[in-house]
Structure formats: structure tokens, C-alpha cells
Design goal:
Length: 420
């Protein structure tokens, strides 16, 4: 298993290109199941989860062609010959559950493994299933699999989500594009990645309105056609590198970054003492003085995103004063805390809140990645720490971030990947 060796203490200066959004790209690939024609996606991030999604679609029978041979553009299309999503793929990547709605819409049946839990929480899919039943699906759980049929096709209806679930919104949205009649998804998630999915689906001939409003209205059509879509920039990657500028006292140009996508993160960065400006090339982030502690609560968009919580905690670990971070989305997303404390941070977890008392400096140490965002939190700490940090289990990071060591080293970081 690869590991990173990081020698901290150097402010980062330079340019970092922000790639295509993982949490948009994965769903846009699934949208390729909704038509037999070619869906072309560009600005595809080269990360492990995208490769896993490619494998999943291929085993469903559709062709996934790497148009440039470098993983940056995919052409997806063809007929579905297998409506089963197996446990070995679904358990590796939870986003696989999103094939359920499209398979039901196109083939009127699907057998999809239940994803099971993951490091950050139990992550049930009850809202996905109840919503599809509202649209006429018959669902039976057996042997760890979801057996779903819609013998008469899906029928549009009003679905009220008890929580603004990103995945449930996306599953129902894609299913509804081919349902008979109108579907309303009330309390729909409003994350920008869903707006990107709506734009692509409408380009494919879907009839969707209400993007970003919390209520999505979909008028079903008989079929969708091919399209070409450029994946939006990854706002979480952008926010993550903004924290790298903050924690190292640097100044970074994040090419392609969009301030508007980051919402509450921009306010939190500025309150902490990181200046953020939108420039023609993207987003500029630089530390303007001492970091100051702040309080954060994670919430659905446009609130502070849970996917930025671990990264921000690393930065607040060396801020002046105390901070409190409350995680309201997942029940176990503080696994980076003991690792940060091994580096000299002073963080105490009380239920869903973490109290962070800023320290003057962190010390390098051997630490272990536990999940995608936690792994970057430890990189950030290592970039600021005195001495050497070794981060193991870097495969967690490779699932969702592209070429991290290259992007950071190009801005002056002393970081290397040791193959293992
Ligand atoms: C998406 O996960 C993202 N993943 C997550 O990013 C992100 O943290 C999350 O949205 C919240 O923004 C992808 O887009 C691939 P949810 P998702 O459904 O769709 C509960 C990352 O680091 N829930 O909004 O699974 C669930 O347990 C990843 O890139 C139910 O109870 O998130 C969780 O507590 C991590 N029943 C909360 O809702 C359901 O049927 C939010 O889940 C569905 C969800």
C-alpha cells in the first residue's frame, strides 16, 4: 500500500488546476444508462472511483470508451444486457446504488446489492427505496440485495424526502425522467452537483425544472437521447486546497475554481483569516494574518458541507483560540481526530461535536488514513507540522483526489509518494 512522506513548514505558493467534480461525474456516468445513444462526458477526474463506476457500467453491458486514452473524456452508451449490480462493486463504492433508478426506468427491473455501511456511517438507503416505491416500483430485500421491478413502468408522483439526501434526490431524479407523467421531489437536495446532473439530463431531452430550489419537477418523456456534457469543477477539491493555503500561510491560484459553488465555505475561510477572491482564471486564496478559531456546523447545501469538515478541522487545529465543529450529516465522521491529536492537536469529541483548542504548532508523526476526506486532513496537518509525517493507506485518498502529491509539490510542498 502506498504511503506519503511529508516534511512540513513551507508556505504553498503557485497554481493548482481544479479537476472535474467526483460527486457530479459519478452520477453523470450513471445517467448514461438512461439512453442507448452516446453520452459524452468531458473534464472527467482521473480517480479510482470513476474507474470503479466505469467497471460497473461495463458489466451492465454498456460501452464506456476512453475517448482520449487518458481518462479525461468518456463516451457511454449502448444497450443494457445485465440489470444486476453485484456486491463486490457496490460494497466498494456506495454511489453504485444510483444505478437502481435508471435500471428500473429503462428495463423495469433491477437487482442491486445493498451497499452496507462504510467508515463514516451506516448510510442506509431507505429514502431511495421508499421514493421509488412511490413511483410504482415493487421492492423486496433478500439476501443482501434489493430486488426491484416496475412491470408497468414507473409512474410520476409526489415524493417528499424526510431529509435532503443527495443520493436519494439523484436516484429519484434520474428514474423520474422516464416515468409516465409528472414527478415532484419535495425537500430535494440542492448541492451544485445535482444542478450539473439536471443540466446534463435536460440536454439529453429530459424535462426538469426547479434546480437548486429544493423542489424538483420532472415531466417524464418516452426516451432520452445522447448529449455532450463538461463536468463542473470539484468544489470540494477547491475548498480542500484553500485550506492548504490557509494552514501553510500560503497564496494559491486555484485554476477553474468557482467561489459561488463554495457557499458557506467561503464565509468560514474569511472568518478564519483566509482571503478568497474570484479571478478570471479561477479562485485565489491566501492567508492574510493569524488564523482565528471559529464555530462550524455541517448542513446540507447551501450550509457548510460535511465533505469539508475534516480539512477545516486540521486548519483550525493551529488557529488562535478555540473552535467547535458540529457534524450533523454523518454519525462517525471524526476518525481523523485521534490521528490529528497524535500530531499534537488538542481536540476533544463530545457526541456530534468536536472542541478544538488551537496549538502553536503540530509535530510530524506516522498517521493512518481512514476515509477520503480524513486522509487529506492529515496531509494538511503534515504540510504545517514541524518534522516528518508519514501517511499510510493512501488508497483512501486516491479514490477521490487526482495527483495530490504532484499538485502540492508544484507549489513548494515537500511531499513524496512511496510505492508499497
Ligand atoms: C453524497 O453522499 C456524497 N457522495 C458524500 O460525499 C456527501 O458527504 C453526502 O452526499 C452529503 O453531502 C457522493 O456524491 C458520491 P446523503 P450520499 O444521501 O448521497 C442519510 C465524499 O467524501 N440517509 O445526502 O450518500 C445518510 O445516512 C462523500 O465525497 C438516510 O438515512 O449522502 C447520511 O447520514 C462522503 N437514508 C445523510 O442522510 C437514505 O436513504 C446524508 O446522506 C439516504 C441517506
Amino acid at each position: 500500500m502506498d504511503r506519503f512522506i511529508i516534511r512540513g513548514g513551507k508556505p504553498l505558493h503557485g497554481e493548482i488546476t481544479i479537476g472535474g467534480a467526483k460527486n457530479a461525474g459519478l452520477k453523470l456516468m450513471v445517467a448514461g444508462l438512461l439512453t442507448g445513444e452516446r453520452l459524452v462526458l468531458t473534464n472527467v477526474p482521473r480517480i479510482a472511483d470513476i474507474a470503479t463506476m466505469r467497471d460497473l457500467l461495463v458489466q451492465h453491458g454498456v460501452a464506456v470508451e476512453d475517448l482520449n486514452g487518458d481518462g479525461s473524456s468518456y463516451s457511454i452508451g449502448g444497450e443494457i444486457t445485465n440489470t444486476e449490480a453485484p456486491y463486490d462493486i457496490v460494497s466498494k463504492m456506495r454511489a453504485s446504488i444510483l444505478v437502481l433508478g435508471p435500471l428500473l426506468a429503462r428495463c423495469r427491473k433491477a437487482r442491486v446489492s445493498l451497499p452496507g455501511g462504510c467508515a463514516i456511517g451506516t448510510r442506509p438507503v431507505d429514502m431511495h427505496l421508499k421514493g421509488l416505491e412511490t413511483l410504482g416500483a415493487e421492492i423486496r430485500l433478500e439476501g443482501g440485495y434489493i430486488n426491484a421491478t416496475a412491470p408497468n413502468g414507473l409512474i410520476g408522483d409526489r415524493v417528499i424526502l424526510p431529509f435532503a439526501s443527495v443520493g436519494a434526490t439523484e436516484n429519484l431524479l434520474m428514474a423520474a425522467t422516464l416515468a409516465k407523467g409528472r414527478t415532484e421531489i419535495v425537500n430535494a437536495a440542492r448541492e451544485p452537483e445535482i444542478g450539473d446532473l439536471v443540466a446534463c439530463l435536460n440536454a439529453m431531452g429530459a424535462k426538469i425544472t426547479g434546480s437548486g430550489s429544493g423542489t424538483l419537477v420532472i415531466d417524464g418523456v418516452d426516451s432520452l437521447h445522447g448529449a455532450e456534457h463538461r463536468i463542473m469543477p470539484d468544489r470540494i477539491e477547491c475548498g480542500t486546497y484553500a485550506c492548504a493555503a490557509g494552514i501553510t500561510g500560503g497564496d494559491l491560484k486555484l485554476l477553474g475554481g468557482r467561489v459561488d459553488d463554495l457557499g458557506a465555505v467561503v464565509r468560514a475561510l474569511e472568518e478564519t483569516g483566509v482571503e478568497v477572491t474570484q479571478e478570471s482564471y479561477g479562485m485565489r486564496v491566501r492567508r492574510t494574518g493569524a488564523l482565528r478559531g471559529i464555530d462550524i456546523m455541517t448542513e446540507p447545501y447551501p450550509g457548510f458541507p460535511t465533505d469539508m469538515q475534516a480539512q477545516f478541522m486540521a486548519m483550525l487545529a493551529v488557529a488562535e483560540g478555540a473552535s467547535m465543529i458540529t457534524e450533523t450529516i454523518f454519525e462517525n465522521r471524526f476518525m481523523h481526530v485521534p490521528e490529528l491529536n497524535r500530531m499534537g492537536a488538542r481536540i476533544n469529541v463530545h457526541g456530534s461535536s468536536a472542541i478544538i483548542r488551537g496549538v502553536h504548532a503540530l509535530s510530524g508523526a506516522p498517521v493512518m488514513a481512514t476515509d477520503l476526506r480524513a486522509s487529506f486532513s492529515l496531509i494538511l496537518a503534515g504540510l504545517a507540522a514541524h518534522g516528518e509525517t508519514t501517511l499510510s493507506r493512501v488508497y483512501h485518498l486516491d479514490r477521490g483526489y487526482e495527483a495530490v502529491e504532484k499538485k502540492l509539490a508544484a507549489c513548494g510542498a515537500n511531499i513524496e509518494r512511496v510505492k508499497g
